[in-house]
Write a structure and sequence with these properties.
alpha+beta, 4-stranded mixed β-sheet, 24% helix, 98 residues, Aminopeptidase, single chain
Length: 98
């Protein structure tokens, strides 16, 4: 469940085509996650437009930065994020306890 006001939807002619959540605000920034486009609508730039527009909006509200976690195994989304201005600053690897 997304916090109130956290989920943002990109629509085309009134139909939702992509979504993203802005969560975890800090004194200087906020995190984007759960970027999603239904499989049948991918490759049309909807999520790219949403992330770029939402990032700009969040920065215009006075935040110093916006950050997001990506899936390193998804080179397409990582190229998109770099193209719209995100810079890779770290890699995280998660391990389940044994």
């Amino acid at each position: 469940m997304a916090a109130s006001g956290a989920l943002h939807v990109w629509d085309v002619r009134g139909a939702p085509v992509a979504s993203a959540a802005a969560v975890g605000p800090t004194p200087n920034g906020i995190r984007l996650n759960h970027v999603y486009t239904p499989p049948a609508l991918r490759g049309r730039g909807y999520a790219s437009a949403l992330v770029a527009s939402l990032s700009r909006h969040l920065l215009d509200e006075g935040r110093a930065f916006v950050f997001l976690h990506t899936d390193l195994s998804n080179p397409i989304s990582n190229r998109v994020y770099e193209r719209i201005g995100y810079v890779r600053v770290a890699e995280v690897e998660m391990h389940e306890p044994t």
